[in-house]
Amino acid sequence: MIDAELLKLMVETSDDGIVIAEQEGDENILIYANPAFQRLTGYSVDDILYQDCRFLQGDDRDQAGLAVIREAIKNHRPCRQIIRNYRKDGSAFWNELSITPVFNDADQLTYYIGIQKDVSAEFEAVARVRELEAEVEHLKVQLAQWQSTSPMLQDPTH
């Protein structure tokens, strides 16, 4: 079994944000956040302890990924989704959020572990590739139209 101090060191030095939330009624109250979570979000532990982590969503609560997360939490299932969250300064970031329920010996849900990874650069790169692909398709259409109306391209012997 892994030593408790080693486990703590691993969590504290992780590059990904790690939080532990305790289920209290319909809310999952944050009881721990590692330093990477604090760096990622700009919130200190004092800012976030005993709050439901929905505060990271701001008013942006109609995201498709959030419905998947809510369903997973309702059914006590793990899930992973990319959602838009907001830092303390109001700036947005794309968060690959992994949520895993933790059960006690009596098989009762007691905690959730949340792991957050800023995937903004990857998300924006994929969006840019899609934009460029659409631009290429548009240029292909324009080129085809130009080729069909250019007499020189229709009969290269002229």
Q: What is the CATH first-level class name of the largest domain?
A: Alpha Beta
Widest beta sheet: strand line-up: 2-1-5-4-3
Structural class: alpha+beta
Q: What is the chains' assembly state?
A: single chain
Output the helix-strand order.
Answer: HEEHHHEEEHH
Q: What is the C-alpha radius of gyration, as a whole number of Å?
A: 24 Å
Mean pLDDT: 91
Question: What is the name of the CATH superfamily of the largest domain?
Answer: PAS domain
State the shape. elongated
What number of structural domains do the residues give? 2
Q: Which second-level CATH architecture of the largest domain applies?
A: 2-Layer Sandwich
Here the CATH topology of the largest domain equals: Beta-Lactamase
- End-to-end separation: 82 Å
Level of helix content?
40-55%
- The proportion of residues in beta strands is 25-35%
Low-confidence stretches: none
Structure description:
Helices cover 42% and strands 28% of the residues. The chain is an alpha+beta fold. The protein folds into 2 domains: 4-118, PAS domain (Beta-Lactamase); 120-158. Strands 2-1-5-4-3 form a 5-stranded antiparallel β-sheet, sandwiched between helices. A hairpin with a 5-residue loop joins strand 3 (79-86) and strand 4. The mean pLDDT is 91.
